[in-house]
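are you around this afternoon, could really use another pair of eyes. what follows is a protein written twice so to speak, once as letters and once as structure tokens for the fold. i want to understand how the tokens follow from the sequence so walk me through it. anything you notice is useful, everything is just below.
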Amino acid sequence: MTRSSLDFSASDFRLLLDQAVALVLDQFKDLDNHKAYHFFPQKELASWFDQPVPVKGMDVAKLLEEVKQQVLDTATGNLGPHMYAYVMAGGTQVSILAELLAATVNQNAGKWHLAPAMNEIEKRVVQWGSAMIGYGKEVAGVLVSGGSAANLAGLTIARNIFFEKQGVRTKGLFGMPPFIVYASSEVHGCVDKSLEQLGIGTNNLRKIQTKSDFTMDLGALEKQINLDRASGFLPFCIIGNAGTVNTGAIDDLEALALLAQKQELWFHVDGAYGGLAASLDTLKAKYKGLELADSVAVDFHKWLYQPFEAGCIMVKDWDTLRRAYFKKADYLDTAFERDKGRLDFNEHHFQLSRNAKGLKIWMSFKAYGLSAFQEMIQKDIDLARYLADQVEESPDFELHARSDLAICCFRYRGTLREREDIEQLNKDLIAALEEDGRVFITGTKLHGEFVLRACLINHRKQKHTVDYLLEVIRDVAKTSCTTS
């Protein structure tokens, strides 16, 4: 029989939706006892999906059960309170509803007339995000996949605008002196990747030393800029950190902005991790100068607790984005449209085909309100301080870095005293804790030493879950690590 479409009957689709909703609700049962990681050897897990492309379809009710067993029941525990690795938020229930609805209407947010409401929502979300961080009322921006894409966009805009008179968009970099970018040694690795993609090259990224608090050394920065100018290079961008991924350090953004103005350089702020915390009254002074940035990267899938993906690049006006990205194409020409108020995102960013990322953010703002997010962000920060206090008061742990934000870097040492033994124990702990699965934490290096790094961005965490983290580390160290 030839199909007329891929749709189910209304009654069959309702049954499948009911089954899917039951799976969603099941994910929220007993979250305190959810495992943070389900350990399977890679080859075993890969074998579950080692099948040729299906020629005939299967019963979808059975497929949903297969998804439950192989995907949902084995998923890394971002939803629950025991995730401390990387920078992983727990999502919101309203955003689940929004994602379902956005997928249903399947709008392409690249052009206004392909997604009118979604495009206006995205513009509004950018404005609300700007207001949240104090960037200003006059703002233009685009939702992207995350902080990496936002920083790539920021550096693309910086290059294309700063070297606009040299025709960099048409002539490229050939024959030009090296373009130089400045950031602290704590800069996120996506900046290296961005400069590779932009043809600038990582040799032209100057990673400036940091002070003891992991913020950029301004004296060293200015000295390096002057040295590069004297060498015939072309300095063009300073990157400030509004919360480093290692320790949550916030650079002196105002001083960096003033130096950028003095040196006539582009000032970009990476606020992917910590930018949204600028909304807190307790931290506003730390973020002074962010409003002076030429471009800012933020992540709504971090401290707005959105599901992936939800990053954003912001600049001061739409003309800047258009000058950086616009390319005329006959099949995309909308010059004939009568309504000149329409704004096409494809003319202000790289992508044409884009999913509608704004709906989940807009619905979350509307459903919870800014004050609820501020309360949760403050709670995360307070819990990180609580963790640092517990570590500092425990003789079997050692604290390596507190943060103004929600990161704590520490080590378990047990009864060990030699630095080499303690370092090896904590390296061993990463794999042992992953295999144990009760909590999920990763590590980093500070001043050349390996440490455990806990990031507390999850509105479901409480003091007792933080206590549980230390209990599990102790238990796993004693039972699974020979160096302990």
Summary: Residues 107-368 form a domain with the Aspartate Aminotransferase; domain 2 fold (CATH 3.40.640.10). The mean pLDDT is 95.
